[in-house]
Fold this sequence. Notes:
Number of strands of chain A: 14
CATH superfamily of the largest domain in chain A: Response regulator
Structural class of chain A: alpha/beta
CATH class of the largest domain in chain A: Alpha Beta
Oligomer: homodimer
Strand content of chain A: 15-25%
Amino acid sequence: MINSKYELIIKDIKKDINTGKFDVDEKISSENQLATKYGVSRQTVRKAIGQLIDEGYLYAKHGSGTYVAERVMKKRHSKNIAVVSTYMSDYIFPRVIQGINQVLDENGYSILLKTTNNSRKGEAWCMEELLSKNIDGMLIEPSQSAISCQHQVLYDQMDAMGIPYVFIQGCYEAMMDRPYVMIDDVEGGMLITEHLIKLGHRNIAGIFKADDTQGILRHKGYVKALAAAGIPYDPDLVVWYHTKDKTMKPMEGLLRILESGRPCHAVVCYNDEIAADVIKGLQNIGRSVPHDISVTGFDNSLLAYSKGITTIAHPQEELGKKAAETLLGLIDKRISKKEAHVLLEPILVERNSCF
Amino acid sequence: MINSKYELIIKDIKKDINTGKFDVDEKISSENQLATKYGVSRQTVRKAIGQLIDEGYLYAKHGSGTYVAERVMKKRHSKNIAVVSTYMSDYIFPRVIQGINQVLDENGYSILLKTTNNSRKGEAWCMEELLSKNIDGMLIEPSQSAISCQHQVLYDQMDAMGIPYVFIQGCYEAMMDRPYVMIDDVEGGMLITEHLIKLGHRNIAGIFKADDTQGILRHKGYVKALAAAGIPYDPDLVVWYHTKDKTMKPMEGLLRILESGRPCHAVVCYNDEIAADVIKGLQNIGRSVPHDISVTGFDNSLLAYSKGITTIAHPQEELGKKAAETLLGLIDKRISKKEAHVLLEPILVERNSCF
DNA sequence: TTCAATTTGTTCGTATGTATC
DNA sequence: GGATACATACGAACAAATTGA
């Protein structure tokens, strides 16, 4: 029984949607147009539309229009966002999550925290558990990100369930079309290499992680900087290592380069940890940093601070904020999955490991 | 967080319902009364009430009034534990939560993370939100813990709902009968004071925070150590300060002691932060640390590490683990609330701020 | 039973703010 | 910057249901 005008409008619009008169994400008439069409006030239209939004038939974009929603709804908003990180112990982690928390808190969301211990098994287990819980979205730091993701099914399942997610800090090669927020590693690798070039270096070695998108991108930046300066790229000056390698591996590679007699007075390292290892290793063989050899890091970690390593700053809090904002945008459909690709500008932090 | 009047009204009414100010089926004020009370139009009140009805907090009877609904409590076994902390930025935080995560993860629980920004308002807000969610238990770091807890009702309500909780790092004075896991601050205060006594000091000043259980307990340990060594307690050697005091306050108190001509070559500080301030202040007036004056901290924070301050180590990961284990024990009723009082042994960390 | 007061439900008109294109 | 569209808010009016005198 329909006793009121707004109920009639609800019934009418529902019918149009259910009979397929509208496509998903198609814009419906504006409130004023509907008001004229039905000969009612805009408030009455708003009441009808408001209820349809509650029921999941429509969604509104402020300043743009009202659109037809994917009818998967009926599920309650839990106002919980899962944050899946590799480790919690990292120096970087607290500030990233602080940024995430700030934005989510302001929007009435809570954080559901999970860790993967950087193993893909851990990640899969985590996600399966999360799928059984009621979450509105997920921010995930991928584990060992360069190798192809072996459980893409889980992500496809999340897509099917309409649960948006954003990769942070890194992204699987095969999933670069999905939303992500991360550092512009190419730019960072270029920035730090350019810094060494400006200091007068031309024979610059590089140590990069091979099974990690970040390692590959940083290497790309290193190559770009060399090319831009007209320095030929020499693959023999580059050391590649893997996660499973012992910590000595990168240093061994560098020693081989130095022993080959090749002139080399600068090393771009994958991250601060490697840089610290390299500095220690060089000191062990009697080479002083930075006077004999310049060394750079990446990430601006605690280690870089305490050891005075020139590095690339990681805008931690901003990354967290941007990631949270992107996810919220995906949840209320303000932005589309295709747009949700954010690269953050790296910043050079000069300390005293370069000369 | 709240940008509109109707949201404020929603929050207000939710609070009144959650804190038990209304009984189930009790009639709330009429729309016109609320409009007058909040100084808004009836439409605005209606918008708020409409949403609360949608969320199941209220139900309306045409021509009669609006009533408080029976809150349909979601059933147990959400396998979610809320962790409420003051800040996430702290140096200490990551390792504590790492310990919590380890134990909870092993038992199939997830962490729901919230921060209070160390304000009691934030804590109340947090808890209200959590009460509307489905959690099996809570680990909470209290805000400004020494002053009496002004929203004990919220904790009583959690008791009534059968949701166990454990205070970590500190506890409200009035709630010491509730479960807690924290450092043995008395033991810590004693340990650090004994250390100074062993170094030959007898005139030992103390700087303590007055509105904080930890400050009071650390002072107690300081007194005990003096008594055990047969040194008379001199209240004039103790500086008390409050959270709201300016950062200079503790140093001013210490200067007054030094200017009084009293012999004093050692200071026990409430925490590392104060110790760092004191060291800086002493250097400003030309006193060298540790040669002229020995200074100790508390907490083994990043500051203590970088400034080389002798301090008391806070077994961070263990605290997290013990807290999680205690909570799990409470959840499956293996242990009773009365037993759930854990004090952890502090550890002395010697650096070079004492001589 | 009637009636008046009260309270929620529906609708209209208007105004201002703010996001988007 | 201007036009458009949604978001919030105020004021007013009348309808419909309930309540109690």
